[in-house]
Amino acid sequence: MEKTFIMLKPDAVQRGLVGQVIARFEAKGCKLVGMKLMSVDQALAEQHYAEHKGKSFFEPTVQYIMSSPVVAMVWEGKNVVALARELMGATNPANANPGSIRGSFGMDISRNVIHGSDSVASAEREIALYFRPEELCDYRKAGEEWLSE
Ligand code: CDP
Ligand code: MG
Known about the structure:
Layout lengths: L2 E6 L1 H5 L3 H11 L2 E8 L3 H7 L9 H9 L3 E7 L3 H9 L12 H5 L8 E3 L3 H11 L19
Antiparallel strand pairs: 1-3, 1-4, 2-3
This protein binds cytidine-5'-diphosphate and magnesium ion.
């Protein structure tokens, strides 16, 4: 089953949105297989956003995810990488569908509440950055049999 890396960014934690955002993934039918509240240090933040090194928003974005604790999570499900991006909405909350997480809870691109891997390859890389294999749980979840044929 596909896995994706999701981070509730510092603004989500500080604004008390952790429960509401997790509830959307649960309600959709995704399975939580890893989760921790943690602080991100400079080295990890720079690796996380390595693809953006050199861009104008790189430094402020690295500082942003280091500014306060984040919730790092791994969610599992059918096509969950693309599904999570749909649930999250566009990068800029100002343009995001109002039903999406960023569209519901954010105002500005610099404080957009949530990160989610953009491809299966990114998900593998990001999960490995944040979690040791033994920190992920492999389990059967009640109701799974009601999610698809
Ligand atoms: O997070 P996502 O994959 O949707 O967007 P990205 O283009 O990979 O950018 C990574 C993050 O950098 C965004 O989620 C924003 O936090 C930040 N960013 C920003 O502050 N200003 C921009 N113009 C672009 C991105
Ligand atoms: Mg991205």
